[in-house]
Amino acid sequence: MRRGLIRVPSRVQTATGVLLTAGLAMAAAGAVMLPPWLAPRTAGTPAGLEQQADAAEGLWRRSVETVAMARGVAPDEALIGGEWTPLVTTLGEIEAKRVSVSPAWPRALVREFHRAGLRPGDVVVASFSGSFPGINLAVMSAAEAMGLRLAAVSSVTASSWGATDPGFTWPELEVRLDAAGVLRRATVAVSAGGDGDRALDLDDEGQSLARAIAARCAGQLRARLIVPLDFESAIRDRLDAFDAARAGRPIAAFVNVGGTEAALGRSPAILTVQNGWLGKAPFDASPGRGLVARMVEQGVPVLHILNVRGLAVRWGIL
């Protein structure tokens, strides 16, 4: 006899099979309850998920087509902005930006939201920069298709090749889509973004432009305008906006898209965090920690989306 091989007598195998078959039959008749790991999957769950994924992708595609028509470009170029504009705060990679505008993102997010246990009516809060408008749209589309209550704080500025063109910054895109009735608005507060959440890393022209866009879009979206005095007030203003939007309901998840200062914070600890769903263990206790770290320490499930190429590989988008 080979080592490590345990032979089970045939009479034991037969008895086990009979008992298991009988148990399954009784469970089917409602006589007993099977443990979750043994219970058969219901046929409605995969079908429901697939229908929601189809709906999310449809919303995303209609949104992109609406933007493309407004810009006078092809849909695959609708969400790719200029490399250098007065609103660019940091360098971006064109390859990453092209990955971020795949229609596979809304489908993947429906799957991930299901995996996290999110259900219709759950409150999801988000931080949207202008760097990945395609993924912002994917989060919104997935949330709407699943019946989630999404509340986001959106920033105007972006890294290169993102939503960098005046007239087509992220908050302005949401205004267009809301006005066209294509996608339900999610933004509950708007900031200029960038350094200090006031675009301090831009020149005078860029600062004035970013702040003007933020103020105008806040009014059009009936959202708060965030003009913080310092880093802590930028955090507090966002938490206040989320509290008002959730109306006493718990936050079921927090989604961060892009690299806003308020979301990432000023601590190097965020550099050790992998993209995707974060663990439950707090990773930063410093005063400079951002919303990502603070949501983790509050026990809120956090989906962190910044390194889109790596996440696309893990999620099967590439």
Q: How is this structure best described in words?
A:
This protein is an alpha/beta fold and 318 residues long. It has two domains: 1-40, no CATH class; 44-314, no CATH class. Helices cover 44% and strands 11% of the residues. The chain has helices at residues 10-29, 44-71, 94-99, 104-115, 133-146, 170-179, 204-220, 231-246, 261-264, 291-297, 308-314, and strands spanning 123-128, 149-155, 187-191, 224-226, 251-257, 276-277, 302-305. It has a seven-stranded mixed beta sheet, with helices on both faces. Helix 6 (170-179) links the parallel strand 2 (149-155) and strand 3 (187-191). It is globular and about 50 Å long.
Helix-strand layout with pairing:
Elements: H1 10-29, H2 44-71, H3 94-99, H4 104-115, E1 123-128, H5 133-146, E2 149-155, H6 170-179, E3 187-191, H7 204-220, E4 224-226, H8 231-246, E5 251-257, H9 261-264, E6 276-277, H10 291-297, E7 302-305, H11 308-314
Tell me the number of structural domains: 2
Task: Strand order, main sheet: write it out.
Answer: 4-3-2-1-5-7-6
Computed over alpha carbons, the radius of gyration is: 23 Å
Tell me about the biggest sheet?
Answer: 7 strands, mixed
Pairing-aware structural class of the strands and helices? alpha/beta
How would you describe this structure in keywords?
11 helices; 7 strands; 318 residues; seven-stranded mixed sheet; globular; alpha/beta; disordered N terminus
